[in-house]
Specification:
There is one protein chain. The protein has 116 residues and is mainly beta. Helix content is 0%, strand content 53%. The protein contains no helices and 11 strands. Strands 2, 4, 5, 6, 9, 10 and 11 form a 7-stranded mixed β-sheet that branches. Strands 1-3-8-7 form a 4-stranded antiparallel β-sheet, with no helix packed on it. Strand 7 (66-71) and strand 8 (76-81) form a beta hairpin. The chain is globular. The relative contact order is 0.32.
């Protein structure tokens, strides 16, 4: 499946952004989807994930601020990011793990820049 991301951009600290990840086909059968991010000079880290059953997982630093969701009817996954901090600045990538055996598809990445 091809994943196309949208959203992101420049926001002041404390602000909000929503990232979208739209698949070329149905996502209802995809076992897990989620978001990674990579800051300059840092390793890519898992931010949030969501299973086909709606079970979610968040990295500790974003708990209570970020919300992951998926709309199967629109073949789209979202990452709502609130109370953004400078350290949230990174390139964000969505992914799909269709069978639960590992990630097979990535979005193109989108920059999130949080300014003071």
């Amino acid at each position: 499946v091809q994943l196309v991301q949208s959203g992101g951009g420049l926001v002041q600290a404390g602000g909000s952004l929503r990232l979208s990840c739209t698949a070329s086909g149905s996502i209802s059968g995809i076992d897990a989807m989620g978001w990674y991010r990579q800051a300059p000079g840092m390793q890519r880290e898992l931010v949030a994930s969501i299973t086909s059953y709606g079970s979610t997982h968040y990295e500790d630093s974003v708990k209570g601020r970020f919300t992951i969701s998926r709309d199967n009817a629109k073949n789209t996954m979202y990452l709502q990011m609130n109370s953004l901090k400078l350290e949230d600045t990174a390139v964000y990538y969505c992914y799909a793990d269709p069978m639960g055996w590992g990630i097979t598809d990535w979005g193109q990445g989108t920059q999130v820049l949080v300014s003071s």
